[in-house]
5-carboxymethyl-2-hydroxymuconic-semialdehyde dehydrogenase (Leifsonia soli), 487 residues
Amino acid sequence: MAQHHIPENLPDTIRHFIDGRFVDSVSGATFDVLDPVSNETYARAAAGQKEDIDLAVAAARRAFREGPWPRMKPRERARVLNRIADAVEEQDARLAELETFDTGLPITQALGQAQRAAENFRFFADLIVAQADDAYTVPGSQLNYVNRKPIGVAGLITPWNTPFMLESWKLAPALATGNTVVLKPAEFTPLSASLWAEIFRAAGVPDGVFNLVNGLGEEAGDALVKHPDVPLISFTGESRTGQIIFANAAPFLKGLSMELGGKSPAVVFADADLDAAIDSTLFGVFSLNGERCTAGSRILVERPVYDEFLERYAERAKHIVVGDPHDPKTEVGALVHPEHFEKVMSYVELGKQEGRLLAGGGRPEGLEHGNYVAPTVFADVAPDARIFQEEIFGPVVAITPFDSDEEALELANGVRYGLAAYIWTTDLERAHTFAQNVEAGMVWLNSHNVRDLRTPFGGVKASGLGHEGGYRSIDFYTDQQAVHITL
Ligand code: NAD
């Protein structure tokens, strides 16, 4: 087995946090939490059921109705949010260590995610203070203005990929706008979420404003979605789960924000800067272990440079360092959980029938245990192949040639998803034309997956509903009441 780092002072129980206190499940139920390198149970987490969600929602509701949080001035809440950001930054190394241990993400990348979590809090602290709302006068007749209000208890349901950062992407705007929250983190990776409790308490978040219930999606998550006193659900996860939540929330007419799966294309035209395109498309699918919603997991390459691209890409993929997630040299760590490992491996086997294997194709040599998958590259993948159509969410890429702009667009759009698209060409007009026509919520032209937090984040088609990011997040977590008075 690879050398394996185990953090000091690792908890062996992970509890809920309700109304300012760490508590077990009412029923006493727990579930096992595995470390993805040994696949041994290192902790037992409280398995929340309906009664735990009921307690958490009651606490959040009380804090919303009676507590100071929704009534504080934006500047006061912003100060608390900035203290949260400071605390996250101060302990970024410890956060990254725990996140890496729980998720199998390479430590250098987990550190970046911790810093990004801090930035999310700072960003929404700034935004809420700068918030402006409209007023309209009809001279001599009427004054109309927008009275923006927090909505109530927000239910936040998050996935296991970059868990701490993705939680911050919901917690920061929900809290900044004065709501109270119940967070249900992913059951594969509950470790880092429990750190929020102490961070929030130390920063001055009143009891009941932040509540955390661990547990399975079908139990704790389901109860949160169906709770009548939770008017908002912000969900990030698989498209299939999104459909279930959509249906379960329908009878309550809840506000829903859905950040779902992806199968994003990276399109490389023959006139592209091939060095930059190869660097970026490697990063696009192999960073974060390929467990990235915006992964460019289908690469479409124009025929004149197809062979050169394949040769250079596969050579680079073979040299990606796979190993212990805590080793700073590691570029691809261990996949999150043995169930997910099995799923990814089944696609690797399928790919051997559906494409031409150029790199990887199974476990990396020397890593006989743990959820390690060698960066895997398939070429000549037909558009009806399952590895072209389905989200694998691991270090596996499908490469397909094309002969014209029209064919590239058809291939790019020929899946049910529409989260991101990456275009590589030096022809400015072609780049913009492609961006206008590609069915994707987010497009990167000759660039990587980096964005300003003010931009809309979200997908189209099966990749999501609604956009978060910047003022869109503020809009989701607030009501804009229109007040009219006759002058
Ligand atoms: P998942 O859908 O299995 O689980 C996500 C969360 O939903 C977990 O907390 C889970 O417990 C909960 N859940 C499951 N069933 C539920 C139910 N019936 N009711 C309520 N909650 C339920 O997703 P995952 O495997 O944890 O995450 C990977 C997926 O997330 C991928 O598809 C990925 O593309 C997607 N993702 C999307 C974005 C984005 O912004 N678009 C970001 C990250 C991940």
Notes: The longest helix spans residues 107-130. Residues 157-161, 166, 184, 186-187, 216-218, 221-222, 225, 236-238, 241, 244-245, 259-262, 293, 391, 393, 419, 459, 464 surround nicotinamide-adenine-dinucleotide (CB under 6 Å).
